[in-house]
Design a protein that fits this description.
alpha+beta; three-stranded antiparallel β-sheet; 2 helices; 3 strands; about 45% helix
Length: about 120
């Protein structure tokens, strides 16, 4: 083997590596806030489920507590219509179902669909 033919990374290879790393970082920066908000929504739902002052038989009381906690966490795009409350045999199931679309690059967008349920046994 000739040692002169093995000189390392070429300029073109370096540009390709930088472009791929930039694309990965762009994807992370665009998608991560959506998943962080979903994590906050799940923790808000768990907090409402564990709050003894909230009556699980009252949809209005549950929504009031949810709405207040969502505002505190600055999550304004999730509306009342995204939540469903069902009650059966002393178990209330609170479900959130929503979709998020964010601008990505030029005319493209990135989106995600989230669903989470919490059971309240009271």
């Amino acid at each position: 083997m000739n040692t002169r033919s093995q000189r390392g990374v070429t300029t073109v290879s370096l540009i390709v590596i930088i472009a791929l790393a930039s694309l990965i970082l762009l994807n992370i920066f665009r998608a991560l806030p959506m998943y962080m908000d979903f994590s906050n929504v799940k923790s808000v739902m768990e907090a409402v489920a564990n709050d003894a002052e909230v009556d699980p038989r009252s949809k209005a009381a549950m929504w009031a507590s949810l709405g207040k906690r969502l505002r505190i966490n600055q999550i304004s795009y999730i509306k009342k219509e995204n939540f469903t409350f069902t009650r059966q045999d002393d178990v209330t199931t609170m479900t959130v179902d929503y979709e998020v679309r964010k601008p990505y690059v030029a005319d493209m967008f990135i989106g995600a669909h989230f669903v989470h349920s919490v059971e309240i046994k009271r």
